[in-house]
Amino acid sequence: MPSEMLIATIPEMLEAAQAAAWLRKSTADVHDGGGYDVHAGVGAMLWIREQVRDRANFSLVWDDTATDSALDLRITSKLGPARIEATRGTGTALIHRSTAGAAGTLWAGTRIKVAGLGSLPRMYRVSADTQILATDTGKIVPIEAEQTGSTTAIDTSKLGGSVVSWEDSIFTMGWTITNLRCAAGTDRETDPAYRARWRQGKLDRRVGYPKAISDALVKAGATYVVLLESDYVVGGDDCVVGGDDYGINRAFVADATYQANPDLLRACRIAVDSVRVLGCDLTVWGIVRTPQAFSLTINCWDDPVKLDQTAIRTAALDGALHYFSSRTNGFTFKRDGLSAYIMQQTQDVQSIAFGGSDPTDTVISALMESTALPLLYTTRDLLNITLSGPV
What we know:
By secondary structure, this protein is of the alpha+beta class. The chain has 4 domains: about 10-60, no CATH class; about 90-180; about 205-290, GMP Synthetase, Chain A, domain 3 (2-Layer Sandwich), CATH 3.30.300; about 290-390, no CATH class. It has helices at about 10-25, 35-60, 70-75, 190-205, 210-220, 260-270, 310-325, 335-345, 365, and strands at about 90-95, 105, 110-115, 120-125, 130, 140-145, 155, 165, 175-180, 225-230, 250-255, 285-290, 295-300, 350-355, 370-375, 385-390. It has a 7-stranded antiparallel beta sheet with strand order 7-9-1-6-4-3-8, with no helix packed on it. A 4-stranded mixed beta sheet has the order 10-11-12-15, with helices on one face. Strands 14-13-16 form a 3-stranded mixed beta sheet, with helices on one face. Strand 3 and strand 4 (about 120-125) form a beta hairpin. Helix 5 packs across helix 6 and helix 7 (about 310-325) crosses helix 8. The radius of gyration is 35 Å and the shape is extended.
């Protein structure tokens, strides 16, 4: 039943009743306030209530329109995940007194107020009974936010102007709260977000989808996984490029040390059989972490003699290392990308020229035919930088 089903209005239903009366008796008195109009008005109101009730009931039995507990029941009955419920953030409060004093218990539920952060103070509370010894002058107390949700995170040591005080005075005389820290809680998952997560989870578990394939490879022992999909895969002994093997058809794996030993490859090749689409060739190969030297000529906007050459070299080194720290740049190297990372570090660089032995841009179609996927990386020792004037 579509959620956009229209509910007739009273004027529309009265007009329909008037038309029906005229069809039966052309002399019927159907003007506003007439006899027929009185009876039709009562019926119109009752029928509108019936429509609203029916739509509300029907909406609860459809995935697109069910809400609150009805949506929870529909998703969990289909073996879907439970909704993420709201939780309170937790943390600690550091309390202090100048001298030893009375022993006792700081009871759970004792409230703490943090003021000075806006129109309303934030409220926190002790989350577990805390024993205080007579010799104690300092104590770390477990606390939680009084309200649920993600907006209660706080660290009063970093908030100037905040005032932290006891809201309840049971066994708090003489104790001062010197710092309060609380992590964020979680917000209750909305109906649209819950519905979307459930549906995405169903897609992720389907064979042939990236998440299902990646999860199977990780479960088989891979730490690093690269998935490539294309319809341009070398096909058969004739080595003709341009087949009809759609979807993910190349997977590359490595362990935590960027190694792909035969045992790992064997385990991963067995694992993908349960998550690949029947008829789609999905081959598994290894990732090889490959050091790469660069000979970069950096053309500056002015004569390098007039510039801080050490700063420019440091910026270039930092930019190159930052470029290769990306998840993808080591696999799909781009000269323009590396140049951009370096030029973002300093305004003195006009352009960058690469050496003859430096790698060219990675061609994705070539990766599809790889049996060992190179993961480029570099170090400061592998970067040779020459400064030059403008070109």
